[in-house]
């Protein structure tokens, strides 16, 4: 009787399962990016942090937020189950944004809320990505396409929240003559998680056959309590790290050493059939670290540049419906990605069917080249600035356009890289290791952004403009160097991929 029922489950599951994860990821990212759009402005304008402190606090928080998934992936694989851990993370994330909504401007309240968000993201992020991997496991072209569309979920959620939360902040502050607008905007981020969880509860049946081995067993309450207790300890430790720059540096650089050590151990102890895939993943992870140094500029140096040196009173695309808030320029990134994701996914799938799809390593080369073009456009802002030191909004539009295409080709395929090259038994853990790499580079991105930090009393746009454009031009050249390095390792990546593919039937397992 059991055997006759089992085949019926996967038949209608693949698309619905993916849709379920797509939607909860969309709402989770709605919360995260709605908060990110305002967080540096909140520290600089409301808490009166200097630029360099705001950049480093947020970059350290970002590092913690992305390093935590290394633990969350293991919890999902071995302790609670992938599905359960993802849901627990979503609940904790909603709590973290709600804490940011409390009407207090105490610095420790901010650090505490960011620390709760760290724990929630650590549990949510690797497990949502690992569930997508399990749905399409075994089909490389579908995995690339699925993760590109999955990446679009990130940008649907972030587009709306990055446009909405700055508007809410301004509207409430202006209407009521107080500063509660900041906290009201953070509460909206929490509401996004509530919607995501409600939606998942309605579609949960589509996920009942997808997950790790602990998902198939009854929930162990003792294990759940231990995970929650460990999360509380991690949150306290994270709050302390955020307050002390030296601790943050030790933590981030220590995480980098541990990450390299883990890769070395896995490569040395793995079967020969798995080794080439792990080496390929390591090469691409190193390239990803360089990419996220550029990515971190969006919420740091580019955000402050938009505040001080962009004429955001201009209309965009001829629309005079509203004046853009400088924080809303960050939404150009997901808007471009939303527009570019479907055609790229179609190109990957079509090329894959014809046997002409570019390797992930080749896509990384093109991605870094596009990032270079984007930053050179930002660096050219001075050529389009008026006598007041304010540049045209079109610099932001086209700069973000090229930068976002590069992001899709690099970051958008980062999870697909893990799904393709890493053995299934290491899936959740290696998803976490990938996010450790993202966290390390996010902190380094804050260090880089501080080369364009300006004193609080330097408010003249004519003086701040050359500070920002100098940094953006240097980043453009750095991205070109990354392009050349990625190009140089292509022959090695081809050999590793060929060796990995020859052993794929031994490594891959059906998701169903």
Automatic annotation (TrEMBL):
<feature type="transmembrane region" description="Helical">
    <location>
        <begin position="279"/>
        <end position="307"/>
    </location>
</feature>
<feature type="transmembrane region" description="Helical">
    <location>
        <begin position="327"/>
        <end position="348"/>
    </location>
</feature>
<feature type="transmembrane region" description="Helical">
    <location>
        <begin position="475"/>
        <end position="493"/>
    </location>
</feature>
<keyword id="KW-1003">Cell membrane</keyword>
<feature type="transmembrane region" description="Helical">
    <location>
        <begin position="85"/>
        <end position="102"/>
    </location>
</feature>
<feature type="transmembrane region" description="Helical">
    <location>
        <begin position="56"/>
        <end position="76"/>
    </location>
</feature>
<feature type="transmembrane region" description="Helical">
    <location>
        <begin position="108"/>
        <end position="124"/>
    </location>
</feature>
<feature type="transmembrane region" description="Helical">
    <location>
        <begin position="431"/>
        <end position="455"/>
    </location>
</feature>
<keyword id="KW-1133">Transmembrane helix</keyword>
<dbReference type="GO" id="GO:0035443">
    <property type="term" value="P:tripeptide transmembrane transport"/>
</dbReference>
<dbReference type="GO" id="GO:0015333">
    <property type="term" value="F:peptide:proton symporter activity"/>
</dbReference>
<feature type="transmembrane region" description="Helical">
    <location>
        <begin position="397"/>
        <end position="419"/>
    </location>
</feature>
<feature type="transmembrane region" description="Helical">
    <location>
        <begin position="223"/>
        <end position="244"/>
    </location>
</feature>
<keyword id="KW-0813">Transport</keyword>
<dbReference type="GO" id="GO:0071916">
    <property type="term" value="F:dipeptide transmembrane transporter activity"/>
</dbReference>
<feature type="transmembrane region" description="Helical">
    <location>
        <begin position="180"/>
        <end position="202"/>
    </location>
</feature>
<keyword id="KW-0812">Transmembrane</keyword>
<protein>
    <submittedName>
        <fullName>MFS transporter</fullName>
    </submittedName>
</protein>
<keyword id="KW-0571">Peptide transport</keyword>
<feature type="transmembrane region" description="Helical">
    <location>
        <begin position="250"/>
        <end position="267"/>
    </location>
</feature>
<feature type="transmembrane region" description="Helical">
    <location>
        <begin position="26"/>
        <end position="44"/>
    </location>
</feature>
<dbReference type="GO" id="GO:0042937">
    <property type="term" value="F:tripeptide transmembrane transporter activity"/>
</dbReference>
<keyword id="KW-0653">Protein transport</keyword>
<dbReference type="Pfam" id="PF00854">
    <property type="entry name" value="PTR2"/>
</dbReference>
<dbReference type="GO" id="GO:0005886">
    <property type="term" value="C:plasma membrane"/>
</dbReference>
<dbReference type="InterPro" id="IPR036259">
    <property type="entry name" value="MFS_trans_sf"/>
</dbReference>
<feature type="transmembrane region" description="Helical">
    <location>
        <begin position="360"/>
        <end position="385"/>
    </location>
</feature>
<dbReference type="InterPro" id="IPR050171">
    <property type="entry name" value="MFS_Transporters"/>
</dbReference>
<keyword id="KW-0472">Membrane</keyword>
<dbReference type="InterPro" id="IPR000109">
    <property type="entry name" value="POT_fam"/>
</dbReference>
<feature type="transmembrane region" description="Helical">
    <location>
        <begin position="145"/>
        <end position="168"/>
    </location>
</feature>
<dbReference type="InterPro" id="IPR005279">
    <property type="entry name" value="Dipep/tripep_permease"/>
</dbReference>
